[in-house]
C-alpha cells in the first residue's frame, strides 16, 4: 500500500517528522490526490499541520478551471486549508523562456512564499515514474552526473513522499480509498518530450524489465552518493583556490578535470550565469590556457587578469577594461 511505501523512505519520514507544517502541492491528478490523502492520514502520527496549494496556470481554459474547482472540493471535504494562485503563464513567460519553464518558475516561487510564511516544507507528488522519465530526458540532453541522480526525495524546502511509488500505485490507491481525481488532457498528447517517453519508451523498457522504475531508483541512489562526494570535494577546492576578488588561475589549473568543471559551475552559479556544457568547456579552456578570453553567455564574461579568474557580469564594464 502507498502509506507503507512512504513510511519505508527514511529520508522522507525524517523530513515530515521534523516539519511543523506541510503544504501539499495539489494539481488534482491521481498522484497529487493520492499525496494529499496520504499526508492527511499521516499528519497525526507524524505531528505536522497540513495545508494545500494549487496553481491554475490558465493554459487549458475551462479544463484548468475544472481542476481548480476539484481541488477546492477535495480540500473542503478533507477540511484542509487551501491556497490558490491563478497566473496567465502564457502572458507571463519571459523572453527565451518556454511555457513549461515559466509554469515551473511560478509554481516554485509560490511554494517558496508559502514555506517562508508558515515555516513549512512543500510536498510535491513526484513519483518513481516521474523520476524515470526525468532521468531519460536528462540523458537525451547529454546530462552530467547530477542529471542522472534524478529527482531528490528531499531538498531545499521540498519533500517528495511518493518518489518510491509508481504512477500505477497512486491510481490504485485512489481507487481503494474512493478518492476521485481529474485528468489533464495534455498528458495524452505526444507533442511533449515527457509524454513521448511515457507513452513509447517506458512501455518498451518495461517489456525488458517490468520493474524499470525501481531499477532507475536504485541507479539514482547509487549515483547520488558519488555526486554528493564529488560536490563536497569541489566545494573544498573552490575555497582553497579563492583569492581576493577572484580565484587563482594557477591553483584552478592544477585541479582534475572533473573537479575543475564542478568548481567552474559553482563560480558561474555564484554570479548568476546559466550553466551549460558549452559555457563550462570554454571557461575551463580559459583556465587551462591562462589567457584572458570571453565567455559569450548572455552578455556575461569570464576573464583572467594578473593570474586571477574573474567573472564579469556587466558587459559595458568588461568593454572598458
Task: Describe what you observe in this structure.
It is built from 15 helices and 10 strands. With 321 residues, it is α/β, with parallel strands linked by helices. The protein folds into 2 domains: 2-126 and 151-186, HUPs (Rossmann fold); 244-320, no CATH class. The chain has a 6-stranded mixed sheet, sandwiched between helices. Strands 7-8-10-9 form a 4-stranded antiparallel sheet. The longest helix is centred in the C-terminal third of the chain and has 30 residues, at 212-241. It is elongated and about 70 Å long. The chain starts with a helix and ends with a helix.
Protein structure class? alpha/beta
**Stretches with pLDDT under 50, minimum 5 residues:** 315-321
Shape: elongated
**Gyration radius from CA atoms, angstroms:** 22 Å
Number of domains: 2
Number of helices: 15
Overall pLDDT metric = 88
In short:
This protein is an alpha/beta fold and 321 residues long. It has helices at residues 2-8, 10-18, 30-46, 62-78, 89-92, 99-118, 128-140, 145-148, 167-176, 193-208, 212-241, 249-253, 257-270, 277-289, 315-320, and strands at residues 21-25, 49-56, 82-86, 121-123, 154-155, 158-159, 242-243, 246-248, 301-305, 308-312. It has 2 domains: 2-126 and 151-186, HUPs (Rossmann fold); 244-320, no CATH class.
What topology does this entry show?
Elements: H1 2-8, H2 10-18, E1 21-25, H3 30-46, E2 49-56, H4 62-78, E3 82-86, H5 89-92, H6 99-118, E4 121-123, H7 128-140, H8 145-148, E5 154-155, E6 158-159, H9 167-176, H10 193-208, H11 212-241, E7 242-243, E8 246-248, H12 249-253, H13 257-270, H14 277-289, E9 301-305, E10 308-312, H15 315-320
Parallel strand pairs: 1-2, 1-4, 2-3, 4-6
Antiparallel strand pairs: 5-6, 7-8, 8-10, 9-10
Helix pairs in contact: 3-9, 7-10, 7-11, 11-13, 13-14
Amino acid at each position: 500500500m502507498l502509506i507503507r511505501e512512504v513510511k519505508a523512505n527514511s529520508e522522507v519520514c525524517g523530513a515530515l517528522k521534523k516539519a511543523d507544517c506541510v503544504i501539499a502541492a495539489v494539481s488534482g491528478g491521481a498522484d497529487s490526490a493520492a499525496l494529499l490523502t496520504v499526508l492527511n492520514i499521516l499528519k497525526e502520527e507524524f505531528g505536522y499541520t497540513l495545508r494545500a496549494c494549487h496553481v491554475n496556470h490558465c493554459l487549458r481554459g475551462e479544463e484548468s478551471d475544472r481542476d481548480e474547482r476539484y481541488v477546492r472540493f477535495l480540500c473542503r471535504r478533507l477540511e484542509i486549508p487551501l491556497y490558490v494562485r491563478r497566473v496567465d503563464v502564457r502572458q507571463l513567460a519571459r523572453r527565451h523562456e518556454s511555457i513549461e519553464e515559466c509554469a515551473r518558475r511560478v509554481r516554485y516561487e509560490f511554494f517558496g512564499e508559502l514555506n517562508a510564511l508558515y515555516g513549512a516544507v512543500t510536498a510535491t507528488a513526484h513519483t518513481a515514474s516521474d523520476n524515470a522519465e526525468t532521468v531519460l530526458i536528462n540523458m537525451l540532453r547529454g546530462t552530467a552526473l547530477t542529471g542522472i541522480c534524478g529527482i531528490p526525495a528531499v531538498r531545499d524546502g521540498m519533500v517528495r513522499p511518493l518518489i518510491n511509488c509508481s504512477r500505477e500505485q497512486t491510481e490504485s490507491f485512489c481507487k481503494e480509498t474512493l478518492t476521485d481525481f481529474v485528468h489533464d488532457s495534455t498528458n495524452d498528447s505526444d507533442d511533449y518530450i515527457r509524454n513521448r517517453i511515457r507513452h513509447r519508451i517506458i512501455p518498451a523498457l518495461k517489456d525488458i524489465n517490468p520493474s524499470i522504475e525501481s531499477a532507475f531508483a536504485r541507479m539514482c541512489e547509487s549515483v547520488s552518493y558519488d555526486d554528493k562526494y564529488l560536490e563536497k570535494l569541489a566545494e573544498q577546492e573552490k575555497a582553497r583556490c579563492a583569492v581576493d576578488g577572484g580565484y587563482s588561475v594557477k591553483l584552478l589549473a592544477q585541479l582534475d578535470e572533473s573537479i575543475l568543471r564542478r568548481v567552474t559551475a559553482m563560480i558561474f552559479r555564484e554570479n548568476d550565469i546559466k550553466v551549460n556544457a558549452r559555457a563550462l568547456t570554454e571557461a575551463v579552456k580559459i583556465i587551462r590556457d591562462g589567457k584572458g578570453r570571453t565567455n559569450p553567455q548572455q552578455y556575461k564574461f569570464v576573464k583572467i587578469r594578473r593570474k586571477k579568474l574573474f567573472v564579469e557580469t556587466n558587459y559595458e564594464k568588461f568593454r572598458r577594461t
